[in-house]
Amino acid sequence: MQCGCKMQSSMKIRIGVMGSAADTSVDQRHAWVWERALALGTAISAREVVLLTGATTGLVYAVGKTAHDAGLFHIDISPAQDEREHRERYALPVDACDVLIYTGFGLKGRNVVLVRSCDVVLFIAGAMGSLNEFTIAHDEGKLIGCLTKTGGVADQADYLLKTFGKHKTGRVFQDEDPDRLLDSCIAAL
After folding, report:
1. How many C-beta atoms surround the C-beta of residue 17 within 10 A?
2. Contacts of 5 (CB under 8 A, 6+ apart)
3. Which of 15, 87, 138, 152 has a CA that sits 20 to 30 A from residue 161's CA?
4. How would DSSP label each residue in 154-180?
5. pLDDT at residue 131 tops 90
6. What are the pLDDT digits (tens) for 88-108?
7. Domains located in the chain, CATH noted
């Protein structure tokens, strides 16, 4: 039996963005980080890629919304089982993506699905949830990019790998410039 589908000879690179879901736009320090998020969204949208995020708020939302509004195809992976739970229980947005996939796996389960779906996993700032995504990406041997000088997990990659790392095939790239970071990560594929 044949499928009537046409297979593309080359698939688009899947870029995942993980990081701070907190509202970080309240003071001058965080305003600069917010600008980095918008610049990252713009840089991603300038490439022939697909964007994946965790259907969340904060800096990750800013990256996704910026890229989506610029015309990039954006897939959100939700921890919820349906739109009602996504909106009511998790209080997450639905306006920044083209496709919203409901996993029903909760936050940590969503993280596994999200990271495994990406070719490149990028981090901007980030706390405990991002640390979970970082360890999954490292254990899965994913190509990791950290947008430095944004704080949190993105600035702690060296420490994390030195202190807790184990030998894996994945590589970690770090840069404070979104375009250079993306170029390095994509070239490494």
Report:
1. 30
2. none
3. 15
4. HH-HHHHHHHH----S--EEEESSHHH
5. yes
6. 999 999 999 999 999 999 999
7. 13-188 (3.40.50.450)
